[in-house]
Amino acid sequence: MANRDALRFTKTHEWFDPTAGAVGITEHAQEEISDVVFVELPNVGTVVRAGQEAAVVESVKAAFSIYAPVAGTITAVNERLRREPALVNTAPHGDGWIFTLKAQDPAAAAALMTQVQYQAWIVTEKDSGGVHAEHS
Amino acid sequence: MKPTADLGTGYKLVPGTGPHRASEPLIFERSVSGRRGFSLPPLDVPMPPAGVTAWIPAERLRAAPAALPEVSERELVQHFMKLAHQNFSVETNFYPLGSCTMKYNPRIHEELTALPGFSTAHPYEPDAAVQGTLQLLGELGQWLGDILGMDGVTLQPAAGAHGEFTGLLMARAYHEAQGRSRKKVVVPDSSHGTNPASAALCGYEVVEVRSNARGRVDLAALHRAVDQDTAVFMLTNPNTLGLFEEEILEISRLVHGVGGLMYLDGANMNALLGLFRPGDMGFDITHVNIHKTFSIPHGSGGPGGGPVGVKRHLVPFLPGPLLKKEGQAYRWVEAPPSSIGRVRAFAGNIGAMVRAYLYIKTLGAEGLRHVAEHAILNANYLKARLKTAYTVPVDEPCMHEFVASAVEQKRLGVKALDIAKRLLDYGCYAPTIYFPLIVEEALMIEPSETESRQALDQFADALLAIAQEAKTNPGQVQMAPHTLPVERLDEVRAAREPNLRWRPSPDGARPQGALQGPGP
């Protein structure tokens, strides 16, 4: 698990570890969607575009799409989530990782938000009032 | 120490002392070996010496008899009546379940639907023997076409999502007939979950368009999302926030401009009856959930109906067989080869259609318009009363429903879920919560036209009292319900470890905890 400062973030609340290629949902996202009861994992070898749906996390509230943060190929999935979906809640940045992705362009992650930018962004999104998108 | 619930009526209810003190045991737990609920006369047909099982192939026989409950008729009736009395239903409680239109179901529907001509008709009877039923179906299709502003209607789909799938199959057949293979279906981010699901099932890629700050389709975003590859734009109007899409004509022009089709999810048709016709807004395809709009009991899954109406250019693709009127007689005829084929066995859920027919016939055009007007008035009245304590993200006149938010209460530790559970203590069913996803801590409230001003006030008073409790006694809300047969259920464990089947305990004894309560 990489240093939190090295992680990159999407507006759809995924985190991406550019070194290990791991993808999961953020602490903020797990808090918002509440108790996760099922995770639909992608197949290893699947080629995804940036922003394409790659997995589905189902909570007691609803089902949420998990989008690929960058374009690439799925190289591994977290098999433990099949039996222990609650890991997404208890350790969203650790054992609750969802899949790993080999980025097509190793530099693509640079376009994503840093930890600081992401934290600032969720505050603005919350304070924007009115209707806001809350994908995850 | 059990928490007490102050209902604001002078009564204090303590769990276990409410009207339903003990949870009714499972019928299996009432079972006594050898008890019967029936008695049969002696068998008067010859049987093989080994018994009836001799006629059944060995691989079809179970190894051990099924563990069915053994109870008397009296116990059976008592069991199900007790369960029925514990139920929250449209008949017994206010039921503001947003996006589902749970309205009162007139009793005359049940009486007339039970007429043997309808209830005992068999789908294989010759057309000449079921002319009454066929006439009813023919006229219902005609009327729905008039109400929706559509040129052709199929009654086959069994529910709304089935209607969506049927509509999308017709859209695909239409595009293919034009020699186009389009890949995308566009939906707003507030769409009903069934919309993207139906599109995916139909083989389309789903593209989501963000709503603007006023909760409507963002025209600029829609402009970017639709192109020559867009097969259909699916929308509900009024939308999921209960708001009328005022720019609907511009939206239709945009989608038609790239050769796409407009699909209306008719789940919110209750707000439009007699006021607006989807066909006039530019929609090419519409389904209507007749069990919602036209008052058919549909808790726990129906049976309902999702007829689909289409404009003239899509009529050749309607499912078959088609009902044809020749002189005074109706008969089924083959659909043309362009048809998408049959989507349902026989003619669909006839019982639901009889009720929809009766609803339209009893109210008439004028009455249907009043339905929509009163549904809209009731929703706006509730919104006006509730916005003093709850956030209303888009505070504009709404149609038949609106979405409030419990963000203020969440700061005090009380979530939409807690408020929903607490409402049960006040004798109201909970509104839809956490939908649409674009509103945080959403409470989606649809009172329907069938509620009186007193019922609306009671519900508003309850929600306002709960908002007050969130400030003064949040624990009471967080722990709710306090007055029901069961306390808050472990929904997470139920979803993670679904255990849906009763099993006898290994020693044959009654499971621990069964039949507890006040005793016999």
How would you sum up this structure, described in words?
- The complex is a heterodimer of chains A (about 140) and B (about 525).
- The model of chain A is unreliable at about 130-135 (pLDDT under 50).
- Chain A has one domain (about 5-125): RNA polymerase II/Efflux pump adaptor protein, barrel-sandwich hybrid domain (OB fold (Dihydrolipoamide Acetyltransferase, E2P)), CATH 2.40.50.100.
- Chain A has helices at about 25-35, 80-85, 85-90, 115-125, and strands at about 10, 15, 20-25, 35-40, 45-50, 55-60, 65, 70-75, 100-105.
- Chain A has four helices and nine strands, in the order βββαβββββααβα.
- In chain A, a hairpin with a 3-residue loop joins strand 6 and strand 7 (about 65).
- In chain A, strands 1-2-3-9-8-5 form a six-stranded antiparallel beta sheet.
- By secondary structure, chain A is an alpha+beta fold.
- The model of chain B is unreliable at about 1-20 and about 510-520 (pLDDT under 50).
- By secondary structure, chain B is an alpha/beta fold.
- Helix content of chain B is about 35%, strand content about 10%.
- Chain B has a seven-stranded mixed beta sheet, sandwiched between helices. A three-stranded antiparallel beta sheet of chain B has the order 12-14-13, with helices on one face. In chain B, strands 1-2 form a two-stranded antiparallel ribbon.
- Chain B has helices at about 75-85, 105-115, 115-120, 130-150, 160-175, 195-200, 220-225, 250-255, 290-295, 350-385, 405-410, 415-425, 455-470, 475-480, 490-495; strands spanning about 5, 10-15, 150-155, 185-190, 205-210, 230-235, 260-265, 285, 310, 320-325, 330-335, 400-405, 430-435, 440-445.
- In chain B, strand 13 (about 430-435) and strand 14 (about 440-445) form a beta hairpin.
- Chain B contains 15 helices and 14 strands.
- Chain B has a domain at about 110-365: Type I PLP-dependent aspartate aminotransferase-like (Major domain) (Aspartate Aminotransferase, domain 2).
- The interface between A and B is medium-sized, with 18 and 22 residues.
